[in-house]
Amino acid sequence: GVMRSLWSLGLAFLLALTSRAGGLEIPLEVEQLPTITVQTAGPVIALPFEGSFSMRCEAKGNPQPVYRWTKDGQAIDPLFDLGVKKERNNGSFVIHSGRLAQFQGMYQCYASNNLGTAVSEEIELIVPSTPKFPKEKIAPIVVKEGQPVILECNPPQGIPPRKIYWMTIGLQHIEQDERVSMGHDGNLYISNALEKDSRRDYCCFAAFSVIRTIVRKTAMSVVVKSCRLTVGGQSSSGSYAIPERRPSLLVPSGVQSEVRLLKGEELVLECIAEGFPTPVIEWTKRTEKLPKRANLKNYGKRLTINNIEEEDDGKYTCEARNSVGDTVHYFNVMVEEPPRWQPEPPKGQLAVVGSDVHIKCSASGKPRPVISWRKNGQPLDDGPSSNRQVLDDTIVLHRARPEDSAVYQCEASNRHGTILANANIMIINLPPRMLTKDYQRYSVVQGRDIIMDCKVFIEPPDDTTESVEGERFSVFKNGSLQINQAGKEDSGEYVCFATNSEGKSAITALLDVKDPTQIVEPPQDLHILSGTTAQLTCQAEYDISLRNEFQIVWSKDGEEIPPFTEQSRYFLDDGMLQIINVNQSDKGTYTCTARTNLDQDTASALVTVLDVPDAPEDVELSEQKSWSVRLAWVPGDDHNSSTTEFIVEYEESQWDPGTWRELQRVPGNQVTALLTLHGHLNYQFRVYAVNGIGKGPPSNPTDRYKTLPAAPDKNPENIQIQGHLPHQMDISWEPLLPVEHNGPGLEYKLSYRKLGVEDIWKEHLVKRHAFVIKNTPTFIPYEIKIQSRNSHGWGPEPKVVTGYSGEDLPTASPQDVAVEVLNTTLLRVSWTRVAQATLRGHLGGYNVHWLRKRSLLHSNRIPEERHFLTFPGNRSHAMVPGLRPFSEYRLTVNVFNKRGNGPNSDPVTFQTPEGVPEQVPILTVSNAQRDSITLVWAPPFEANGILTGYLLQYQLINETLAMGDMQEVNVSSADTTHWLLQGLGEMSKYMFYLSACTRVGCGPQRMEEGSTVTEASEGNWRISEAVNTSKNFHLIDGLEPGTVYTVCLLAKSRLDNASIFEDVIQTRVKGLASLHLGVSTQGWFIGMMCAVALLTLTVLIACFVTRNKGGKYAVKEKEDLHPEVESQGMNDDTFGDYSEENPLKASQCSLDRGMGGDSDYGDEEECQFNEDGSFIGEYSDHKNRAKGN
């Protein structure tokens, strides 16, 4: 037959060798015999303190094998016979501690399917019993002195290792030597007994370390009778002799013995002899020297050789000799081996029908192993028609048939053990069987290599091969196709073919070439401050089809960082790594790995943690002198920020114990400092380092260092000379610190004299740090010096300082005061400086005082407003801002020193010129008609001159907010506060601008927006009760739900019906009222503003009218519109708690403003109307909100 495996892509065909399943490596997809894969290696020793014992038996095969067990050659069911359950899908079972004795025995596992049976090796389960010595009564051993003694131990059997000890009942070891020793069998041998060997507590102990048990045999008694002669019932010390005896062997018996042991075990030969004097043992090996590995133990009585080899075979001799004679024993040592496969156990085979199959089973061992065969666990049955021939270690299957397929067991045995091997023999002819999944999808990154599998099982095989076309394509013997440096053009379908004499098979593989994963923004090296949060970022590009598999993983120093947990300080999110509360353990190399299931890319960054330096170590003192010492230290770790300096601190125990103070700073490249110290102090020192991050912790303090007392080495500093009173001089200074005293008894010598005249030094000794000199002339210069001293001497020569005695008030005022009015609010003042002699102290500067006497707009006087400014230094002019226009002022100037102010200059009176008015405080749009609008306003607070009228401008605004041409109206009457604009467009929006004017010009504009209407409204006006002007809201009841109303606010005193507030509202539908918070019953809250105070009104009235479409509204008579306040009454019950959702912001102003008297618009009384028009802004804002409700 012919077998082929062919790969093709498009029109290019690739031929490959198929892989042949050899030995036992048959793919599990193919029907096959059982093969045991896991079994327990015996023997198993069931120790009582272990929890459980596994008997493992696992096998593979197709069909799945079933399992059975035998124990001591008899079939058993683990569940019914042993009470244990087998594991699912294998034959293993677990024995739990309990009554273990019933489980002891030889176990064997059988794994079978319909093709055959595999057999495990025998597993011996040993359940050891607790070793015990028999209870017995042992008679005392009585011997004569010089006779041998054998104390038998006969230790019980147990789990090795076992150790034997001979001790007393008091656990004292029996002393052993050439005469007394313990044999390898555990017995205690005494070559010749002495009187000192007599005792009643010879005890044999057996210790079993595996089961942690020690047992003791009944104590034995030995009585040794003396050989001394007795005379008259007493021992004689004159004649004493132990008869000499030639040696004889206590162990072993006879002249010759045979020793058999396995290769690798330890050879132990022992000869223990009795006799007197004590015999000496000598070992030899016939025809050659003892091996170098031979060791003599037990005082030369025991010969041992570890890990014995075949060359250690032979005859060994032990000779026991003393002065009387000798004796000899011969050991015939034979080294043997258990069965062992030579060179390896038989392998399974695949063979075609009709071929001859040879199964060879070669084993070595000493004695030579006996080979036995079984088939599927049963003895061979060779009938007349059998095609099987057994030739010692080989089975030949002639012209093999499918029914010869089986598991053949080969067993090799000798007296040292048995080994067993299973050989799976399969006799089959099959067409190619594809073991690789059809339409398997493969993915590879562009530029990488890819291997696509084509695993085929073929029997019989074929050796035909063909070459592969294409440099980048390779086909392996196992049928796999490799493409090197795959490109996008390699994506597509590939087909693999396989044929033999029995048939043909094929599979298709799909290849998809992906874009590589690449880090485009790698993490950057980072220097981070300890205790802060470090952040590393990593961004990568990858094939979009791999987005579900793509992930970014971070690792530190090669160890992966787990996802964020509550205990972790790492936070990972979308390629970002945050390290919270960084410390020194976080420094290292951080690697970002961007990976998919196909490839990965890595990038690393070094994180350097910056921290304050560690404390210096090994701080020591040297060069110790009376008032200096050298300090040296070893710097600590600077934590990646160079040390800039070291700071030396000291603590002294006399004046301020426990307080550390700075003594000296040392550059960061120095590690020593020479410290200059004060006297009479008990110091200790410490050092800390400073780097770019900050100050580190201090070092441990040094030992105490005490300095000797001395005279002061400095004088007081910061001498202050002041004259609080005209005829005295107050002198104070900064005293020496306690640590600067240098000794006891510190005091100060104060010396002073007048400067510039011949005067002697006057001296005072004081202990305080202040002194007052009285009866001095006013403001005279003095020389002062202060020297310190203590009980050990004077300080250095002091420096002389200069000061003045006490000051007095200046006596002169500035002359020639003149003013220059620069504009309406700014003034320039000048004067002639006062003479130095009149100052009587240090010049402080000049004060300018001014007083507003009256407004030129009103003849009546106003409350005086006094102001002043201070101008320090020796100057002759100043600028005075903040004046009010069109006013009369009075101004004075005075000089001052530290003592106080001098007299005022003669007053100067001046006037400020007229200015432009302030912005009008309010502008409202009222009575909008089809072609007209009424504007209402209030005059400005401050006219700053004589008001001449108003400038009114307006322009049309279209839907795109573009402005039309500006129109202008001059209102020439200063008393006019409303204006009717006619000739406007119907349903048009306008922007109005109004400014007040004086003779100087017009002030800033106030803007307001308004619109004309399509038709005039129709309805009946109703007048509410008088509005309480002290409140900022008014409640109107009795309105109909869902109705449109016009609400306006009128002044009682006006007769032209011009409203100062007007708006259109619609009441809510009844059923919806509950949906809006803050609305109770059917009442409606109308917010009112205190702007009426600006219009100099006395009372407000609210009116409203129901609006209807297609009609005009009637206006009542003027007397109905303006009823008297007395007739209306003020019902305070109407002003309840107001909780409308969007209440009007309102300011409360006093109605006293503008109602006559001495006050005018320039009064200081405050109102919550800002000059920038914020009141209008609040009103407009509320108006828009109200329409939205």
UniProtKB/TrEMBL annotation:
Cellular compartment(s): Cell membrane
Signal peptide range equals 1-23
Which Gene Ontology cellular component terms are annotated? axon; plasma membrane
Q: What is its main location?
A: membrane
Superkingdom of the source? Eukaryota
Q: What's its EC?
A: 3.1.3.48
The record's GO molecular-function terms, alphabetically, read: cell-cell adhesion mediator activity; protein tyrosine phosphatase activity
User: A GO biological process this protein is involved in?
Assistant: axon guidance
Similarity field: Belongs to the immunoglobulin superfamily. L1/neurofascin/NgCAM family.
Name of the protein in question: protein-tyrosine-phosphatase
